[in-house]
Amino acid sequence: MSGRYHRHPRQVHDDYKLSDEVLGGGLSGKVHMATSKIAHNQKFAVKTLTTRSMCPEHKNNIQMEVEVFLSMDHPHVARLFDVYESEGSLALVMECLEGGELLDRAIELEGFSERDAAHAVYQMLLALNYIHSHGMVHRDIKLENWLYDTVGGNHLKLIDFGFSKVWAHNTKMKANCGTLSYIAPEVLNQSYTNQCDMWSLGVCAFILLAGYMPFSGPDDEQTLNILKGKYELEPDSWNNISFEAKCFVQGLLQVDPIARMTAQSALQHEWIQTRNSPAAWSNVDANIVNALRAFSRASKFRRCCMEMLAWSLSNDERAQVRQYFIDMDQNKQGTITLGDLRSVLIDNFHISDEETKQIFLAMDTNHDERIHYSDFLAAMVNTRIALHDDMLHMAFQKFDADNSGYITLSDLREVLGDHFDGETVEKLLEEADQLHDGRISYAEFASYLRGDPLPIHAEATAHIIDKQLVGKGPILSNSTQGKLYSLERPFSR
């Protein structure tokens, strides 16, 4: 979450330009289209939550759940890029998914083929297995909450964590929330676990395969049928559907949540396995492996910067490498373990166990014995994903916590704390502070990450500006001031 949770006086309008275009909305407010003030071609979705009238307990719960959403990091979960907290509101900046809802795609196509339905459900299972294995329950799984990332694309992402909750195992939730047609029986009885999401996924799979809702009609009738698990397999819709698909749906629409498949077991079901067999390790090529090796040899501050750059990538840039991450995740819980990494590097590329461990430790940035999606993306930056000005500007902006136009020691403390991976922030700053003035300008930041020499004029510029600040230098012409300003401050405020 480093550098992505911002507090007053920094506001969403400092970094993003909000438009009047409304992408959607609900009980928690409208979602507006926005663009970055740096990368003008990148679109975002901004939801603003009003917290002014909330009681302290509710406000704390909202903030905690937003922080959990910030930590969500998976190819099939919508990314939350930035959060801005001000007095009375929280602004959430999310990726803008332009491919439309899964429901709309199903209506447009007048139903899915069984293979296409299996592929969609497989992606949904990957997302649910990830959030469940990380202690979260979504509680509003429905076709409308699965969006395609691009127009005409086939990559699905889970959205809308408004009802989501951090869930402790061996406890039961009571809140009755969600959409009735998708709600699990135990939710209606107000005693449930994360298995409620699996019932809802069963409803989604049913609709994609058969083209109609398993539970419909007046609310009272729906409720009674859901509690009984009573639905009809209409012959006209189900006669041409395989036995394995029927078993899969029936395995999810079990009234008893204990008898219901989990996300992990559903991924192993024959219907999923035969249509979405896990990719072979051979799909991970030598270029990916070389990128991992290069990342492990980089300095700590360079790796820290690459981690920040990973949260500045566009969807197109992430799409270049995301399948490699999914392929390497052998247990499909949304992270890469040391065992997964060994299966690739040692078994297929004959890299030593010692170097494999070194690579793993370098990428395990939060020391939880897992490589997360953004850790993997960070390793791909500058090797498989090319560095460019927009990406560098956005990463610089996240480090520049006080909007001063420089990365200072206080900025690094605000973003990273006193240490990063055992190194003091003073040491980190010193590594990229090429002018030795106790701060990092954008020119220094870009030079450091690109490995290019710092332009000679940058040092002269710094001295001239310092003289002007203390009143010792001559007055510069407006044109000269403009040129120097553009060198030292990468974007307007």
Beta-strand segment tally: 14
| N-end to C-end Cα span | 23 Å
Strand content: 5-15%
Mean of residue pLDDT? Answer: 88
What do we call the CATH topology of the largest domain?
Answer: Transferase(Phosphotransferase), domain 1
Globally, the shape reads globular
Q: Count the domains.
A: 4
The CATH architecture category of the largest domain equals: Orthogonal Bundle
**CATH H-level name of the largest domain... which superfamily?**
Transferase(Phosphotransferase) domain 1
What does this structure look like?
By secondary structure, this protein is of the alpha+beta class. The protein folds into 4 domains: 5-95, Phosphorylase Kinase, domain 1 (2-Layer Sandwich), CATH 3.30.200.20; 102-275, Transferase(Phosphotransferase) domain 1 (Transferase(Phosphotransferase), domain 1, Orthogonal Bundle), CATH 1.10.510; 281-380, Recoverin, domain 1, CATH 1.10.238; 389-488, EF-hand (Recoverin, domain 1, Orthogonal Bundle), CATH 1.10.238. The chain has helices at 12-15, 56-71, 102-109, 114-133, 185-188, 196-210, 219-228, 235-238, 243-252, 263-267, 270-275, 286-297, 300-310, 315-319, 322-328, 338-349, 353-363, 373-380, 389-399, 409-416, 425-432, 442-450, 456-470, 478-488, and strands at residues 5-7, 16-26, 29-36, 43-50, 80-86, 89-95, 136-137, 146-148, 156-158, 165-166, 407-408, 419-420, 423-424, 439-440. The strands form 5 sheets. A 6-stranded mixed beta sheet has the order 1-5-6-4-3-2. Strand 5 (80-86) and strand 6 (89-95) form a beta hairpin. Helix 12 crosses helix 18 and helix 16 crosses helix 17. The longest helix has 20 residues, at 114-133. The model is unreliable at 278-282 and 470-493 (pLDDT under 50).
